Amino acid sequence: MAYEIRYTRLANSTKISDRYITVQVKNSTDPEKLKMGTIFALIEITNPWYPNSQIGQSIINVLTQEYYKQDNEDLLTNFENALKKVNQNLARITQEGESDWIGNINAILALVCDNEIHLTRTGKAEAFLFRDNKVNKITDGSVQITENPLKTFFDIVSGEINKKDKILITSPALLDYLSQKEIQDVISNNSPYESMVTISQFLRQEKARHINSVLLEINSKSDSENHVLDNKDVVYLDQVSNINLISTSAKKYMSQVGPTAENFSKSVTDSYEKVKHFFIKEVNPRTKSAWEKTKKISSDGYTHLKTKTAPQVKSMIQPISDKVKTNIKNYVFKPKIEEVPSNGILDENAEPYSVNYYESNKNKSKINMDK
Fold it and tell me: What share of the chain in percent tops pLDDT 90?
C-alpha cells in the first residue's frame, strides 16, 4: 500500500541566544528522487548560537545532499552512506578547531519512505511511536556520548510503520513540562497540527521556547485523495496564530454540530413556508377586505361631512359672524376733549408739553386717554 505523510513542526521563528535548535523536513528537488522518501532532522546544540548554527545546519545539508544523490535501491544502505558523510564532515570541523559541540548535541535524523522508517540519534533527543492508542519509545535506552566525531551518528533503528501510526520526534526538554501520558492523550485524539497547537499553548504559558518537535502521521494515498487533510507545516512557539486556532476549533465544532444544525435549518425553513402559506391564504385576504371596508367608511364619512354637516354649521354661525363684522365697521374711536379751565392750567404739577397736554392754536387741551 502506498503511504503519504502529513506532519507539523513545533519550532521558533527567531533564534535562541543560548543554543542552536532547529527541526526541518527535507525532500529531493528532483521529481524522480521523491520515491526515496522524506528526511526529518531535529538538531539541538546547547551552546550559544554562533558558530553552532553553522555546524547544526551543515549536518542537515550534508545528509540531504548525500542521501538523495545515492542510486542504490536499498534505502537503508543509502541512509548509512549519507550518515558516514555527515560524521566525516563533523570530524573535519573538529580538526579545524570547532569542538564545543561535542557532548552538547541532541539530535535525531530519520528517513521515512512508504512503510519504512530508519532513525539514528545522538544525545538525549527522543522519538515515540503512537499506535492503536498505545505509545512506544523508539529511542529507548541511553546513548553513549562519544568524543569521536566519526561515531556521532552510529546506531540506526529500523522498522515498519502502519496506516494511522504517529511518530513524535522531539528535543528532550519537552518531557520536563509534559509527561509521556499527557503527550499521549493529546496526540492520540488529534491531528498533528491540532496536537502541536495544544502543546504549544501549554509551553507558551510556561515560557518554554527551547523546545522543537515534529509530529508525523502515516496515511494511505487513497485517504489523501478522498479527504482534505489538515496539513499545516509549522506551529511557532514565539507566535500566536489566533486565526488558525479559531479556524481549527471551528472546523472541529462544525463537524460535531453540523448534522444537528442542518436539521434545525430544515425545520426553520419548513416553519417559514407554513407561516408564509398561512399569511397568503388566510391573513392577506382578510386584511384586504378590512382595508376596503375602512376606505368605504372613510369616503362615506367625508361626503356626509362635506354635504350635510358643514352647511348646517355654516348656517348657524353666519348670523353671528355678520353681526360682529357690522359692529366692527360702525365703531369709531373718538377721543373726548376737555376744556381748559379759565386759569389755563389743567394740572399745576404737570410739566409743560408733557404727555398730558396737546397744544393747538396757542390753546391747551387735555386728551382723555380713557378711551
Answer: 51
- 127-179 pLDDT, tens digit per residue, is 999 999 999 999 876 666 778 999 999 899 999 999 999 999 999 999 999 99
What are the residue boundaries of the structural domains of the chain, listed by start?
3-240, 332-371
Q: What is the pLDDT of residues 68-113, one digit of tens each?
A: 999 888 999 999 999 999 999 999 999 999 999 999 999 999 999 9
**CATH topology classification for 3-240:** Phosphatase 2c; domain 1 (3.60.40)
Mind spelling out the 3-state secondary structure of the chain?
A: CCEEEEEEEEECCCCECCEEEEEEEECCCCHHHHHHCEEEEEEEECCCHHHHHHHHHHHHHHHHHHHHCCCCCCHHHHHHHHHHHHHHHHHHHHHCCCCCCCCCEEEEEEEEECCEEEEEEECCCEEEEEECCEEEECCCCCCCCCCCHHHCCCCCEEEECCCCCEEEEECHHHHHCCCHHHHHHHHHCCCHHHHHHHHHHHHHHCCCCCCCEEEEEEEEHHHHHHCCCCCCCEEECCCCCHHHHHHHHHHHHHHHHHHHHHHHHHHHHHHHHHHHHHHHHHHHHHHHHHHHHHHHHHHHHHHHHHHHHHHHHHHHHHHHHHHHHHHHHHCCCCCCEECCCCCCCCCCCCCCCCCCCEEECCEEEEECCCC
